[in-house]
Amino acid sequence: MWRYFVIIGLVVSLTSCGAKKIKLGKVETHSYQSIGNGVAGITLKLYENNTFKFDLKSIPQPESKEKSIKISEIGTYTSEGNWRVLNFKDPKFSLEAIFDPQFGDASYYKVIDKENVRVNTSKEMLPIWGIVCEKE
Question: Which residues, at least 6 apart from 46, have a Cβ–Cβ distance to it below 8 Å?
Fold first, then answer.
C-alpha cells in the first residue's frame, strides 16, 4: 500500500517541477494578419492577459522541393505606452530574421535580443518577414 503513496508522491513532484504553461487570454487587444501574398501566412495576436500568439507558415514556391516553414509561438509581453515588448521564450528561429530592420524602420519594431522584440501597436500595419500585416 505504501508503494502507491510513494508512486503518487513521485508523479505529483515531477509534474509540479515542470515549466509553467502559458495560457492565452480570451480577448484580443491587438491583432495583425498578413494580406494576400504568395510567400507566407502570418498572424500576431495580443491578449488582455499580457500573452500573445505568433504564427507563420510559408508557402512553398511552385516546382520547388522546399518544405513549408511553420512557426507557432506563445509568449508574454509587457506594455510601454504604444509599444509592447514581446518575450519569445527560447525561440527556434531568429527574431532578427522575422523582424528584419531592412523591411521596417525603428518606428515599427526593434529586436532587443534573441528572445525580445519591441512592437509599436499604434501602427496600422507591421512588415513582418517582409510581408505587410494589417491591423484588424
Answer: 28, 29, 30, 31, 52, 77, 84, 121
pLDDT tens digits, residue range 54-75? 999 999 888 888 889 999 999 9
CB-based contacts of 64, cutoff 8 Å, min separation 6: none
Q: In the block, which residue shows the cell 510513494?
A: 6
- Other Cβ atoms less than 10 A from the Cβ of 47: the count is 20
CA 87 vs CA 5, 48, 49: distances in Å: 39, 15, 14
- Structural domain boundaries in the chain: 21-135
Q: What is the pTM of this model?
A: 0.82
Q: Does residue 1 surpass a pLDDT of 80?
A: no
Classify residue 31 as exposed, middle or buried by CB count within 10 Å of its CB (0-12, 13-18, 19+). Answer: middle
